[in-house]
Amino acid sequence: MADDIILLDFWPSMFGMRVKIALAEKDLKYEYREEDLRNKSPLLLEMNPVHKKIPVLIHHGKPICESQIIVEYIDEVWKDKSPLLPSDPYERAQARFWADYVDKKIFELGRKIWTTKGEDQEAAKKELIGCLKILEGELGEKPFFSGENFGFVDVSLVTFSCWFYAYERFGNFSIEAECPKLIAWTKRCMQKESVSSSLADPFKICGFVVLLRKKFGIE
Amino acid sequence: MGEEVKLFRTWSSSFALRIVWALKIKGIEYETVFEDLSNKSPLLLQYNPVHKKVPILVHNGRPIAESLVILEYIDETWKQAPLLPKDPYERAMARFWAKFGDDKVLTSIWSVFIKQGKEQEEALVATMENLKFLEEEMKGKKFFGGERIGYVDLALGYLANLISIFEEIVGLKIVDEEKLPLLYSWMQDFAEAPIIRDNWPPREKMIVKFQALLDAAIASSSSSS
Known about the structure:
Order of helices and strands of chain B: EHEHEEHHHHHHHH
Distance between the termini of chain A: 51 Å
Distance between the termini of chain B: 60 Å
Radius of gyration of chain B: 18 Å
Number of helices of chain B: 10
Largest sheet of chain B: 4 strands, mixed
Mean pLDDT of chain A: 97
Number of strands of chain B: 4
Number of helices of chain A: 11
Strand order of the largest sheet of chain B: 2-1-3-4
Helix content of chain B: 55-70%
Strand content of chain A: 5-15%
Largest interface: A-B, 23 and 23 residues
Largest sheet of chain A: 4 strands, mixed
Oligomer: heterodimer
Strand content of chain B: 5-15%
Low-confidence stretches of chain B: none
Shape of chain B: globular
Radius of gyration of chain A: 17 Å
Order of helices and strands of chain A: EHEHEEHHHHHHHHH
Low-confidence stretches of chain A: none
Mean pLDDT of chain B: 95
């Protein structure tokens, strides 16, 4: 009784990890296919002709692209188990707003930290910490972003936590020193099987970044 | 029991138009608060402290920001004249095309408008590639939403107006009727739909505004620092 799900992914992608968490939250079995982004498979190019990117979820042969959209799709189709979005429209709007905020800010700033030096890097570090502090403020004293239960915003943000070590190493700073409550929240999330089994090892991510920097010629 | 709905916007914001159209399609009464972005009101800063932008919808005192988030909120709160389809796969597709519009189409069209020379040529090529995907999506449909205007039409709809304004100012054809016939007719059908037609910002004012933006961009790129 297969659910007929295929996930096209690339192991360091924090976007692919979001989908893995959502699938795990819903207890779904699926086929995982690792893509080599320097040599994209015909299936990837067929299923995501617009962006040619991962992750792509293929359900009953039909593709869904863009990680937040995939997570919402999973939440809507398998709505009876572990709902990720709240049921109240206003709460849902807040969750979508904050997930969108994560998308607008964290990836680009993180990327700037490990690809630049000097003033540009300092500016990126400062801005990233600023954004993480805003998120920390939004979390407040709650265990998770939507309250008692792990949800949509947690899924959107927690996958970046396995990249924090790489950001800290190349940016020469400590995220925990600046945002202790946020780091406490990442540890709380990691106690969930769906998260710990979906996130990559931070040391492996750092090794991957070392390779990328060599490839881009960054000292 | 009265519902209080307020929309904070500027006269020209394309993103705010999405909300105006959605509220009108659903027949929701609302109050408009026009903002001057060079002098943001304390209320704007209070309602959207994170981005400090418009549009913001305030429903019974509670603010929602980010136009696509607002559209989904409106659709979930007022169930008449649904904007998104019911089927989860169709919904995912609708969200995908709206995001594609914001992430790729708008960016490439803006580059065609604001850049010159080789950069403009490259932007035009990228724009054509992006618009071809939308053309493909229109096959067999009058609107992106099917027979009726839906979420994707509202998300992309500002293009029906803005593209012709850009074409007029820079003297370049972006949506050629021969190359993109379906998209071209969608732009006409959408722009002329009653609710949409009555709510465009004044064209002459838009031309003045965007011409000024272009002049400023050219001036700053050609002046030596």
